[in-house]
Every structure is written in C-alpha cells, then in structure tokens.
C-alpha cells in the first residue's frame, strides 16, 4: 500500500512522539523539559538505569545515547511493538483521528484475508484448549502434572490438546464458517498427496500456541504423546502468518520482561521456556524447531543487546553452540553481543530447575561466557599444540574467524582477548627457572603422554666417567645482557605507551620468564594495569644497571626514543638467537661428546657471559660475535671432533 508523504507528515505533526513512546517508558521529569517537548528516560531497547534515551517533540525523533537506537514515531512502533509499516501508520492514524488513504483492491483483499486467517488460528487455539479438559486428554494431563504444570500453568501458556482424530478440528472449524482451503492455508490441516479431503495436521499431541510480538496466534507446536511417533515435536508449516525462522516462542511476554530489567534467555524448546518463566526468568524465548537463524538473532538484539543462549548439556546442544558461533561472528558488534550458558550434561533448563531449584539456574546465568570464550574453546579444547605447524594452524583459524567481524573496534578487542588466551596456553611451553616446559596441550593437564617435557640442553647419561659439568648459565639470569636489554625495552614502552603499537609483534615474541615482567608486558599489550605489572615497573625504574639516562627517558623526540627501542629489541633478538643456536648445537652432540668438547663448550659459554656489560654495546659487535661462534660450531660439527680417533 502506497502512503502519500504529505499524509505521513500530517500524521507526525498531529501525534507527538512523546505520547507514543510514553506508553513504553517512564520519563525522568527532573531531566526532561516538558514545556519545550524535550524528554529523557531509560531506554526501552536495552537494560539501563540512567536516562540516556532522548525524545524531541519538535523534531519528532528519538535517540538513545547508549545503544544508538533512533527513529520517528512510526519507527518506534515497528521496533517496540513488532508492527510492520502499514500497521504502525494505521495505529497512529486511528490515534490522530485521520482516515487512512484508500488502498488498491488487491492490497485490501490481502489485508482482509490475513485478518480472517488470524481469526481462524484463534478459533483453533480455543478448540485445542477445550480438548485438554476432555476424557481423551487424560494421559496428556498426567504428563503435564508430572512435569509440574497445573491448571494455572495450562491457562497462562494456553496449552491445549489435539485428539487422535484425522478430521475433528477441520470439521469444527468448518462448522464455524471457515472454508477448507483457508484451513489448509493456515497450516491447521493438510491435503493428502493423492488428493482427497483435508485431515488434521496435529493429532494425539499436547499443543502450544505460537504468538507474534503483537500477541496474535500465528501457528502451533505439538508434542507427541506416542513415544513411537515419527516426530517428537511438530510445528506448523510455513504459512502467510507463520515463518518459523523469523519468530520466537514467547516473544511478546519476554520483550515486556526485558523492558523491566530481566535477561533475555534463549532456550531450546517450549517446555524449557515454560519452566524458566515459572521459575521467575520471564524473559525466556525459544526458536521454533530449527537452529537459530540470522533473522532470529536480529529479533533477539531488538529486544536485548546481549541475549544469553542456554544450551542443553548434550551433544546436540554443543553442536548448536558451534553453529551459532559462525552465524553470530559476522553480525556481532557494539550492542549486538551473545553470552552462553552450557548446562550440565544430560540436563535442560526444566531438568535443572526441578532438580536443584531456580537458584542453580541463576548461578549458571551469572557465569554466562562471552562469544569469544566459546570460539577459543572450539578451536583449542582436546587438542595438542606441540609443534610450530599446529600453533600456526590454530592462529590461522582464529584470525580467519576474527576477520569476519565487521566492526573494527570489536574486531580489535577480539584480537586482544585471543592474544591473551594464546599467551596463557603457550606460556608453559617456554622453559624457565623452576618451570619445566609443557607440550601445549589444551585439554586436561597431566594427561598421559603430555607431562612435563625434558628441558632442552639437559644432558644424557655420559659414556664413562666424566668430571662434574658446570651448567650453562640461563640467558635470562639477572644482570645478564639479555636481562638488561629486556628490562630497558619494557621500561621505555611503559614510559612511552604510544610506541607499543609500532613494536607490538616484536614485543609479543619477547616472552619474559620473570612473572612480574610478563605481567607488565601483558598490561602494555592489552592496555591493562595489574599489581604484578606495576611492581615490575617500579623495579625497572629503580634499576641503575639498565643504562637509561634521564635524557633518554625524558626526551621529547618520539622518533629518537623509538629508534632506541628498536635498537634494544634488535640486540635482544640477536642475543637470544645466538643462545638458542648454542643450546641447539649442544643438544645435537649430546651423548657422543667427549670430556674435551664439553669443556670447550663450557668455556665458550663462560666467555660469553663474562663479556656481558651493564652498558649497551654496539649491536654490530654482537652480530660479529654471533657469526664467529656460528662458524666455530659449524667447523666442529663438520669435523665430527667428538669422535675419538681409532687406536693404532
């Protein structure tokens, strides 16, 4: 139906937007200026206590400074009431006392037929409810009683019963004046494939009416009483009124509950919703026999910016969570988030509430996990990351998932969270004083075959007697060159946070073995500020060995300080590469080396550490030392000097 623009302008002028919105909100009269038509209230679209929702009668628009919802009176009715455009205009016109423009005959015919279909579904709903009181429904009433539902619950949720008859409902509706074609069109009855009279679609089932956001009956869901039925649950087919992928069970009452401060909880089925509502969680909804769709996600976000998805603790519930991750990531962003609650294995919300009470459900909801946690768990749980290739594959999968998030700020925060989780997972892989390495297993610690790994460089049993060996000093020992280079780099980044972004990739590879320094690095990369990081910063500030003069710390030239930082990181990476090569060479010749070679290796290590100085020497010298060391090691390996010459 086409509406002339002049008609809409006149409609907006006649009906103040505050009158339309005022039916859904409580105005903050201290903040509002009624004389100027300037109104403020808590937003009806997301949960808040402050009045950040602004309504301007003169301009005819509303705007929320919290969730950025905005629009005119017609848009508000569409969002808040679930109306389509024509329905919203018609409602405002009635309030303004204006006559709707004449519609073309075909549009009017479609509108009249929709109205007639709604009358038919309401008549079917009343008939189902009456059948629950009959003798044929005794087993259904017993079942409902076992599930803890009394007559008050039957009435509240309009629960009914479809008797085991092929034509009872169809005949009853025809007696009320509905023709058979319309009964079939509404999904109440179906025609045999080979032709013939229509038959009732719902038979020997407990029936739950499905209503839209305007409380109109659009379809039905039925639970079979016969355990051998082909389908335990059966929903109405797609009809002019019912699109199961664009509706939610119990949507209207849940919307009202969320507006009063309740959570929006998404369960799996009708009985779960009923159990949650009766336990006090009135903002419960459920998809209609299918996996959650994009349209249903958008519908949830119109009700609440952060719905809680409550999934059954079985394999099907886990699969549903995995599918929902991929569906939600390209749609997530500010005001469009998800949290997840996974119930104990073998239980749904109804089971949990009946077994442990509403408090158990409330405790789970309070611990709901964000979407990023489920993404991480999906990619890591039960896997072993004991090789660079496996770690690289994990990084690629996570990066591809995060790249699908359209909002740049949200994408950046996801990347920060994943980096933090990755460091936590792989931190144990890095050997350090008092902390042996692990194999990067993302499952239960201590599992068979994945205990603590042997430290690289640990000696095998010697072949024959040998003098006690002096262990090679750890490269990160206090006052060693690497220790000082690492500390100086961290101190510069802490004093000049603007430099962190440019060196982020190099800082991530730093991996300090000192717990406080690791905490400081984590704070620098994530923008946090924890007690361990602050403790490390104070220690670095007071360390005179770092060689950072007040001129370096207080220099105004950001580029000069950045150059100093890059120079420090260059030296640190070069030293660690040299140390790793020395350890690798020692490891390769273990078990076959004689005492002479072991002594030479120890002398190289001692000489290297004697050469360490608190002041920062030129990085070119370090590269030359590393090249000389590499050449010497390669010569020894090529000559196989560990092999004793044959006796003559």
Number of strands: 15
Residues in helix, %: 40-55%
**Quaternary structure annotation:** single chain
Shape from CA axes? globular
- Give the number of helices: 26
Mean pLDDT: 79
Secondary-structure class: alpha+beta
Q: How is the main sheet built? A: 5 strands, mixed
Radius of gyration: 35 Å
Number of domains: 4
How far do the termini sit from each other? 109 Å
Lateral arrangement of strands in the main beta sheet: 12-11-13-14-15
Q: Hey, roughly how much beta strand do the residues contain?
A: 5-15%
Low-confidence stretches: 444-479, 590-595, 611-626
Protein name: DNA primase
Function: RNA polymerase that catalyzes the synthesis of short RNA molecules used as primers for DNA polymerase during DNA replication.
Biased composition (Low complexity): 442-458
Enzyme class: transferase
Report on this model:
This protein is an alpha+beta fold and 648 residues long. It folds into four domains: 5-96, Alpha-Beta Complex (DNA Primase, Chain A); 106-242, DNA primase, catalytic core, N-terminal domain (DNA primase DNAg catalytic core, N-terminal domain, Alpha-Beta Complex), CATH 3.90.980; 251-379, Dna Topoisomerase Vi A Subunit, Chain: A, domain 2; 481-639. It is 48% helix and 9% strand. Helix 3 (73-81) crosses helix 4 and helix 24 (558-588) packs parallel to helix 26. The protein is globular, with a radius of gyration of 35 Å. The termini are far apart.
Summarize the structure in short.
The chain is α+β, with helices and mostly antiparallel strands and 648 residues long.
């Amino acid at each position: 139906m086409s509406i002339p623009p002049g008609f809409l302008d006149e409609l907006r002028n006649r009906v103040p937007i505050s009158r339309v919105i005022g039916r859904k909100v409580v105005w903050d009269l201290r903040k509002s200026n009624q004389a100027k038509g300037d109104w403020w209230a808590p937003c009806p679209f997301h949960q808040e206590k402050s009045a950040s929702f602004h309504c301007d009668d003169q301009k005819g628009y509303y705007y929320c400074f919290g969730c950025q919802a905005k629009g005119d009176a017609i848009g508000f009715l569409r969002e808040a009431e679930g109306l389509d455009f024509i329905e919203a205009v018609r409602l405002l016109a009635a309030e303004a006392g204006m006559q709707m423009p004449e519609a073309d005959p075909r549009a009017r015919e479609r509108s009249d037929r929709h109205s007639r279909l709604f009358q038919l579904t309401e008549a079917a709903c009343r008939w189902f409810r009456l059948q629950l009181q009959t003798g044929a429904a005794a087993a259904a009433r017993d079942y409902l009683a076992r599930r803890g539902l009394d007559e008050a619950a039957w009435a509240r949720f309009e629960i009914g019963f479809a008797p085991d008859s092929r034509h009872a409902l169809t005949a009853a509706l025809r007696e009320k004046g509905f023709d058979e074609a319309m009964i079939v069109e509404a999904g109440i009855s179906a025609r045999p494939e080979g032709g013939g009279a229509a038959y009732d679609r719902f038979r020997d089932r407990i029936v739950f009416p499905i209503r839209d956001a305007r409380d109109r009956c659009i379809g039905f869901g039925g639970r079979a009483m016969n355990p051998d039925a082909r389908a335990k649950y059966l929903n109405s087919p797609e009809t002019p009124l019912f699109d199961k992928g664009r509706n939610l069970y119990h949507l209207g009452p849940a919307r009202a509950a969320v507006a009063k401060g309740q959570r929006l909880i998404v369960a799996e089925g009708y009985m779960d919703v009923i159990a949650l509502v009766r336990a006090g969680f009135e903002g419960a909804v459920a998809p209609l026999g299918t996996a959650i769709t994009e349209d249903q996600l958008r519908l949830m976000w119109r009700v609440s910016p952060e719905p809680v998805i409550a999934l059954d603790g079985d394999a099907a519930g886990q699969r549903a969570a995995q599918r929902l991750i991929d569906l939600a990531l390209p749609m997530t962003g500010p005001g469009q988030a998800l949290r997840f609650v996974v119930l104990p294995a073998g239980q749904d919300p109804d089971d949990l509430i009946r077994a442990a009470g509403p408090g158990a459900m409330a405790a789970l909801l309070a611990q709901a996990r964000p979407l990023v946690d489920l993404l991480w768990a999906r990619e890591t749980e039960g896997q072993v990351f004991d090789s660079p290739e496996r770690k690289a594959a994990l990084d690629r999968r996570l990066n591809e998932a995060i790249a699908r998030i359209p909002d740049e700020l949200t994408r950046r925060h996801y990347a920060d969270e994943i980096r933090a989780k990755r460091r936590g997972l792989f931190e144990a892989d890095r050997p350090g004083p008092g902390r042996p390495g692990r194999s990067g297993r993302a499952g239960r610690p201590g599992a068979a075959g994945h205990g603590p790994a042997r430290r690289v460089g640990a000696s095998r049993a010697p072949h024959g007697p040998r003098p006690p060996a002096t262990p090679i000093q750890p490269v990160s020992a206090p006052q060693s060159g690497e220790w000082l280079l690492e500390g100086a780099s961290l101190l510069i980044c802490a004093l000049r946070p603007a430099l962190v972004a440019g060196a982020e990739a190099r800082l991530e590879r730093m991996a300090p073995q000192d717990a406080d320094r690791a905490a400081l690095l984590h704070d620098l990369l994530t923008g946090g500020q924890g007690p361990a990081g602050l403790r490390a910063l104070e220690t670095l500030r007071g360390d005179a060995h770092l060689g950072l003069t007040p001129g370096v710390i207080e220099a105004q030239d950001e580029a000069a300080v950045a150059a100093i930082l890059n120079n420090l990181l260059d030296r640190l990476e070069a030293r660690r590469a040299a140390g790793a090569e020395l350890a690798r060479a020692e490891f390769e010749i273990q078990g076959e080396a004689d005492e002479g070679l072991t002594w030479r290796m120890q002398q190289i290590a001692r000489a290297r550490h004697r050469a360490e100085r608190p002041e920062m020497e030129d990085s070119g010298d370090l590269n030359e030392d590393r090249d000389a060391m590499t050449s010497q090691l390669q010569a020894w390996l090529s000559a196989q000097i560990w092999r004793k010459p044959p006796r003559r």
